[in-house]
């Protein structure tokens, strides 16, 4: 069989996909550093995860996000104050769905930092309904050992990454001494919620009882825990494990507007205001979260 000398592409009837290629003798492909894939222009500096529709609407309105479909998934995107943002909503409440939403966000936009934004229950006496919590640490309370003599709870802690902690500290330092923000809602009502930084508890329970064993455990574990939610544990764990797989840090943080006190008076009425306050704090935090490269 004779041999053919070919300059270019030779195909004997098969199929193939050609990317980043040039055709012809001495052809070259010149690529810009950092633009290793077509999606590079779509990478987000800040990713956002919401859980409830009212949280999603608040973030979309506060940041001016536009809807974008990727396959069967819906994302929301914009450039806000020079920061590229991509947001998504979980399929369900809870840790597992938060981890899945994070995986979807990373696959589509690979954000530098991912922020969980929405409502939560305040459990510390210093926290009022409408206030906003910036989590500096997550305490997962659902680890436990069940024995004939009773259930022994085991909390697991995870601090936010150091870079996020510095961003939170700088943001608070730029506020006045009361750490209050003036926020105007879409109807024109002005409020001045306080912004708190501290630990939050996270587990699978919707807590509507001030005497719940979960509340008592968290108080004994760390009396500075400010609030509880159902998704921060999943996001923190997902980012922690993703860092090992990717070889770089995956930063995360949690912003919770307080809609109730995790007690029997829990009501849906304050949720919209709490979600709006959390979304507005996110808007003001964006420049602090942006990484300069």
TrEMBL record:
Residue span(s) of domain Nucleoside phosphorylase: 69-280
Gene3D superfamilies per record: Nucleoside phosphorylase domain
InterPro entries documented for this protein: Nucleoside_phosphorylase_d (IPR000845), Nucleoside_phosphorylase_sf (IPR035994)
Pfam families named in the record: PNP_UDP_1
Protein name as it appears in the record: 5'-methylthioadenosine/S-adenosylhomocysteine nucleosidase
